[in-house]
Protein backbone atom coordinates (compact mmCIF):
# COMPACT_ATOMS: atom_id res chain seq x y z
CA UNK A 1 0.00 0.00 0.00
CA UNK A 2 1.58 3.29 -1.07
CA UNK A 3 1.05 6.79 0.29
CA UNK A 4 -1.82 7.71 -2.06
CA UNK A 5 -3.55 4.40 -1.39
CA UNK A 6 -3.48 4.98 2.36
CA UNK A 7 -5.09 8.39 2.02
CA UNK A 8 -7.72 6.86 -0.29
CA UNK A 9 -8.50 4.30 2.41
CA UNK A 10 -9.28 7.14 4.78
CA UNK A 11 -11.61 8.79 2.28
CA UNK A 12 -13.36 5.46 1.61
CA UNK A 13 -13.96 5.09 5.33
CA UNK A 14 -15.19 8.67 5.52
CA UNK A 15 -17.79 7.91 2.86
CA UNK A 16 -18.85 4.79 4.78
CA UNK A 17 -19.42 6.90 7.91
CA UNK A 18 -22.27 9.38 8.10
CA UNK A 19 -20.12 12.50 8.44
CA UNK A 20 -23.01 14.62 9.61
CA UNK A 21 -20.58 17.15 11.12
CA UNK A 22 -19.63 18.14 7.54
CA UNK A 23 -23.26 18.39 6.34
CA UNK A 24 -25.42 19.69 9.16
CA UNK A 25 -22.90 20.14 11.95
CA UNK A 26 -20.22 22.63 12.88
CA UNK A 27 -18.51 22.29 9.45
CA UNK A 28 -21.81 22.28 7.54
CA UNK A 29 -24.96 24.38 7.60
CA UNK A 30 -25.35 23.99 11.41
CA UNK A 31 -28.93 22.78 11.07
CA UNK A 32 -28.42 19.75 13.33
CA UNK A 33 -30.95 19.85 16.21
CA UNK A 34 -28.28 18.44 18.57
CA UNK A 35 -25.91 21.38 18.12
CA UNK A 36 -27.80 23.52 20.60
CA UNK A 37 -27.25 20.86 23.26
CA UNK A 38 -23.66 19.87 22.41
CA UNK A 39 -22.29 23.24 21.19
CA UNK A 40 -19.66 21.43 19.06
CA UNK A 41 -19.82 18.14 17.13
CA UNK A 42 -16.82 16.72 19.02
CA UNK A 43 -19.04 16.60 22.14
CA UNK A 44 -21.65 14.44 20.38
CA UNK A 45 -21.81 10.63 20.68
CA UNK A 46 -22.12 10.33 16.87
CA UNK A 47 -18.73 12.00 16.39
CA UNK A 48 -17.16 9.86 19.13
CA UNK A 49 -18.54 6.68 17.55
CA UNK A 50 -17.05 7.66 14.18
CA UNK A 51 -13.67 8.27 15.81
CA UNK A 52 -13.82 4.87 17.53
CA UNK A 53 -14.63 3.22 14.21
CA UNK A 54 -11.60 4.94 12.68
CA UNK A 55 -9.31 3.50 15.37
CA UNK A 56 -10.83 0.04 14.97
CA UNK A 57 -9.89 0.21 11.28
CA UNK A 58 -6.21 0.49 12.18
CA UNK A 59 -6.45 -2.86 13.96
CA UNK A 60 -8.10 -4.44 10.93
CA UNK A 61 -5.53 -3.03 8.52
CA UNK A 62 -2.69 -4.26 10.75
CA UNK A 63 -4.05 -7.82 10.46
CA UNK A 64 -4.04 -7.52 6.66
CA UNK A 65 -0.57 -6.03 6.15
CA UNK A 66 1.48 -9.26 6.39
CA UNK A 67 1.19 -9.80 2.63
CA UNK A 68 2.73 -6.42 1.83
CA UNK A 69 6.39 -6.69 0.78
CA UNK A 70 8.91 -3.95 1.47
CA UNK A 71 10.14 -2.37 -1.72
CA UNK A 72 13.94 -2.52 -2.01
CA UNK A 73 15.66 0.16 -4.02
CA UNK A 74 18.98 -0.61 -5.64
CA UNK A 75 21.72 1.54 -7.10
CA UNK A 76 20.50 4.66 -5.32
CA UNK A 77 23.27 7.04 -4.30
CA UNK A 78 21.12 9.42 -2.31
CA UNK A 79 18.10 9.05 -0.08
CA UNK A 80 15.39 11.67 0.44
CA UNK A 81 14.67 12.62 4.03
CA UNK A 82 12.15 15.08 5.42
CA UNK A 83 13.87 17.25 8.04
CA UNK A 84 11.70 18.50 10.90
CA UNK A 85 12.01 19.72 14.46
CA UNK A 86 10.40 18.77 17.76
CA UNK A 87 11.45 21.10 20.56
CA UNK A 88 15.20 21.47 20.18
CA UNK A 89 15.73 18.16 18.40
CA UNK A 90 16.01 17.79 14.62
CA UNK A 91 14.84 14.55 13.03
CA UNK A 92 14.84 13.01 9.56
CA UNK A 93 12.23 10.63 8.15
CA UNK A 94 12.32 8.84 4.80
CA UNK A 95 9.94 10.56 2.38
CA UNK A 96 8.51 7.20 1.27
CA UNK A 97 6.66 7.21 4.61
CA UNK A 98 5.23 10.69 4.01
CA UNK A 99 1.88 11.49 2.38
CA UNK A 100 2.10 15.26 2.71
CA UNK A 101 2.95 18.19 4.95
CA UNK A 102 -0.22 20.01 5.98
CA UNK A 103 -1.08 23.17 7.93
CA UNK A 104 -1.71 22.71 11.63
CA UNK A 105 -5.28 21.58 12.31
CA UNK A 106 -7.34 21.49 15.49
CA UNK A 107 -6.94 18.23 17.40
CA UNK A 108 -10.04 16.90 19.12
CA UNK A 109 -9.38 14.69 22.12
CA UNK A 110 -11.33 11.49 22.69
CA UNK A 111 -13.05 10.66 25.99
CA UNK A 112 -11.33 7.28 26.40
CA UNK A 113 -7.82 7.43 24.97
CA UNK A 114 -6.29 4.11 23.98
CA UNK A 115 -2.69 5.12 24.55
CA UNK A 116 -0.59 7.95 25.93
CA UNK A 117 0.66 8.74 22.43
CA UNK A 118 -2.84 9.20 20.98
CA UNK A 119 -3.69 12.91 21.04
CA UNK A 120 -7.11 12.50 19.42
CA UNK A 121 -8.39 12.98 15.88
CA UNK A 122 -8.05 15.74 13.29
CA UNK A 123 -10.31 16.57 10.35
CA UNK A 124 -8.26 16.25 7.16
CA UNK A 125 -10.35 17.33 4.17
CA UNK A 126 -13.51 15.94 5.77
CA UNK A 127 -11.97 12.66 6.95
CA UNK A 128 -11.18 11.83 10.57
CA UNK A 129 -7.51 10.92 10.96
CA UNK A 130 -5.84 9.74 14.16
CA UNK A 131 -3.33 12.20 15.62
CA UNK A 132 -0.28 10.96 17.52
CA UNK A 133 2.49 12.57 19.59
CA UNK A 134 5.98 11.81 18.30
CA UNK A 135 7.31 13.35 21.51
CA UNK A 136 5.64 10.50 23.40
CA UNK A 137 6.56 7.78 20.91
CA UNK A 138 10.21 8.80 20.76
CA UNK A 139 10.53 9.46 24.51
CA UNK A 140 11.62 13.04 23.90
CA UNK A 141 11.77 15.63 26.65
CA UNK A 142 8.42 17.36 26.29
CA UNK A 143 9.45 20.05 28.77
CA UNK A 144 12.16 21.41 26.46
CA UNK A 145 11.09 24.75 25.00
CA UNK A 146 10.99 24.98 21.19
CA UNK A 147 13.94 26.68 19.56
CA UNK A 148 13.35 30.37 19.07
CA UNK A 149 13.60 31.87 15.63
CA UNK A 150 11.94 33.98 13.00
CA UNK A 151 8.83 33.03 11.10
CA UNK A 152 8.53 29.41 12.21
CA UNK A 153 5.27 27.69 11.31
CA UNK A 154 4.22 24.50 13.13
CA UNK A 155 2.96 21.84 10.74
CA UNK A 156 1.30 18.45 10.64
CA UNK A 157 2.92 15.51 8.91
CA UNK A 158 0.54 13.02 7.33
CA UNK A 159 2.37 9.70 7.54
CA UNK A 160 1.51 6.53 5.63
CA UNK A 161 1.27 4.14 8.57
CA UNK A 162 0.57 0.44 8.12
CA UNK A 163 -3.15 0.69 8.93
CA UNK A 164 -3.76 3.99 7.18
CA UNK A 165 -2.55 7.59 7.40
CA UNK A 166 -2.00 9.31 10.73
CA UNK A 167 -1.07 12.90 11.49
CA UNK A 168 1.68 14.08 13.81
CA UNK A 169 2.20 17.73 14.82
CA UNK A 170 5.75 19.09 14.57
CA UNK A 171 7.24 22.42 15.55
CA UNK A 172 8.99 23.18 12.26
CA UNK A 173 9.63 21.63 8.84
CA UNK A 174 12.94 22.41 7.13
CA UNK A 175 12.13 20.56 3.90
CA UNK A 176 13.09 17.47 1.92
CA UNK A 177 16.79 16.88 1.33
CA UNK A 178 18.72 14.27 -0.67
CA UNK A 179 21.43 12.79 1.56
CA UNK A 180 24.42 10.87 0.24
CA UNK A 181 23.90 7.24 1.23
CA UNK A 182 27.57 6.99 2.25
CA UNK A 183 26.84 9.56 4.96
CA UNK A 184 23.78 7.60 6.07
CA UNK A 185 25.70 4.31 6.08
CA UNK A 186 28.41 5.86 8.23
CA UNK A 187 25.80 7.23 10.62
CA UNK A 188 24.04 3.88 10.96
CA UNK A 189 27.33 2.11 11.67
CA UNK A 190 28.62 4.62 14.19
CA UNK A 191 26.61 3.24 17.11
CA UNK A 192 25.43 6.72 18.07
CA UNK A 193 21.83 5.55 17.74
CA UNK A 194 22.09 2.85 20.41
CA UNK A 195 20.41 4.93 23.15
CA UNK A 196 17.86 6.65 20.89
CA UNK A 197 14.47 5.06 20.30
CA UNK A 198 13.52 4.06 16.72
CA UNK A 199 16.71 5.61 15.36
CA UNK A 200 19.01 4.38 12.59
CA UNK A 201 21.76 6.88 13.16
CA UNK A 202 22.79 10.40 14.05
CA UNK A 203 24.50 12.68 11.54
CA UNK A 204 25.57 16.30 11.27
CA UNK A 205 23.65 18.29 8.68
CA UNK A 206 23.60 22.07 8.15
CA UNK A 207 24.90 22.68 11.64
CA UNK A 208 22.32 20.40 13.26
CA UNK A 209 22.73 17.07 14.96
CA UNK A 210 20.10 15.15 13.01
CA UNK A 211 18.44 12.00 14.33
CA UNK A 212 17.66 9.71 11.38
CA UNK A 213 14.53 7.74 12.26
CA UNK A 214 14.02 4.07 11.44
CA UNK A 215 10.71 4.35 9.59
CA UNK A 216 9.76 0.67 9.89
CA UNK A 217 10.25 0.62 13.65
CA UNK A 218 8.47 3.96 14.01
CA UNK A 219 5.49 2.92 11.87
CA UNK A 220 5.16 -0.33 13.82
CA UNK A 221 5.11 1.70 17.04
CA UNK A 222 2.45 3.97 15.52
CA UNK A 223 0.29 0.95 14.71
CA UNK A 224 0.71 -0.48 18.21
CA UNK A 225 -0.44 2.83 19.66
CA UNK A 226 -3.68 2.61 17.71
CA UNK A 227 -4.59 -1.04 18.26
TrEMBL record:
Q: Give its localization.
A: Cytoplasm
Give the chief site where it resides.
Answer: cytoplasm
SMART domains (alphabetical) = CheW
Domain annotation CheW-like: ranges: 78-224
User: Per its record, how is this protein called by name?
Assistant: Chemotaxis protein CheW
Q: Which GO terms describe its cellular component?
A: cytosol
Query: InterPro entries per the record?
Result: CheW (IPR039315), CheW-like_dom_sf (IPR036061), CheW-lke_dom (IPR002545)
- A biological process from GO: signal transduction
A Pfam family annotated for this UniProt entry: CheW
Alphabetized UniProt keyword annotations: Cytoplasm
* Coiled-coil ranges from the UniProt annotation: none
Amino acid sequence: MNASDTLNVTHEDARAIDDCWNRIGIHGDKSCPLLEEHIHCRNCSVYSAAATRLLDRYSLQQDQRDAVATRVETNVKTRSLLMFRLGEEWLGLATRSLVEVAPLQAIHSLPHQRSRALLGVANVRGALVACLSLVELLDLDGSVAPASGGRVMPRMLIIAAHGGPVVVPVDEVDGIHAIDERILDAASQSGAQASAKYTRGVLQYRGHSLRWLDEEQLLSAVTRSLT
